[in-house]
Design a protein that fits this description.
Blueprint (H helix, E strand, L loop, with lengths): L2 H13 L4 H8 L3 H8 L7 H10 L32 H7 L2 E12 L13 E8 H6 L10 E7 L12 E5 L9 E7 L2 E9 L5 E4 L8 E3 L7 E10 L3 E2 L1
Parallel strand pairs: 1-3
Antiparallel strand pairs: 1-2, 3-4, 4-9, 5-6, 5-9, 6-7, 7-8, 9-10
Length: about 240
């Protein structure tokens, strides 16, 4: 790949799937000039690349790469093909898109699963438009608290299934209303419906009628620690 191809590839990554028109409008670029660059009808020289970097808020060196390094950085290593340049997320946020992390966390909908004792990793990022969340009628504590985890087991069949991805709100750490929660009990991670009872006890409910409800009361209530509330199955079925 020559230096010009490298620059255009980096520019396409910075566009993050936006149309040429939307990208040009966002940063006040000449749409015709941008089209000529992307179609290979014009070469993106070093000076023009530096100007474009500053205008679209990219990290220095994203587009301007010394020709003798053939697309390498100062360490001599080529930039990774899947690295998204700085500035891409700002573009997406300004257009109303948000990024939700899909965490490497599996919650049990059965007999309980030991919660991870290591740093939780992000499997991938899911990008959605804020308007889509609003159409689902969801209320959440903050965009930064949203995450996606995976359900394991069949005890919640009828509401969601084994392996379903679940949108959760990690900002909810107490039982405010009867709902489906992610919580730990005796050191195990569960995804169950919790219902408040008279006197302060809780019913841990499996929506699959095969599994009877369990009453949590007395000293056992101190062992319940709410990690998040489940808002949505990632097939747009509201809970």
């Amino acid at each position: 790949m020559d230096i010009y191809e490298h620059r255009i590839k980096a520019l396409r990554q910075a566009m993050a799937g936006l149309s040429q028109k939307d990208f040009a409008n966002q940063f006040g670029l000449d749409a015709s000039y941008l089209s000529q660059l992307l179609n290979g009808h014009r070469k993106l020289g070093e000076k023009a690349a530096a100007t474009l970097e500053a205008k679209i808020d990219l990290a220095p060196g994203t587009l301007v790469t010394p020709e003798d390094s053939a697309g390498s950085d100062q360490t001599g290593k080529r930039p990774s093909d899947n690295v998204v340049p700085i500035g891409t997320r700002k573009v997406m946020e300004s257009l109303g898109f948000i990024t939700i992390p899909h965490l490497n966390v599996t919650g049990s909908m059965g007999s309980g699963r030991v919660p991870p004792d290591h740093q939780v990793e992000v499997i991938r990022d899911i990008t959605v438009h804020l308007d889509w969340l609003k159409t689902q009628g969801l209320a959440f504590s903050g965009i930064e608290n949203l995450a996606i985890i995976t359900g394991d087991g069949d005890s919640m069949d009828g509401t969601f299934r084994d392996g379903d991805s679940l949108l959760v709100d990690r900002g909810i750490t107490e039982i405010r209303t009867d709902a489906v929660y992610v919580f730990t009990l005796d050191g195990h991670l569960f995804i169950k419906r919790l219902q408040r009872m008279t006197g302060g006890s809780l019913r841990m409910i499996s929506d699959n009628p095969v599994y009877p409800a369990i009453l949590i009361e007395g000293a056992d209530l101190e062992k319940v620690h709410i990690q998040a509330r489940v808002l949505l199955v990632w097939n747009a079925r509201k809970l």
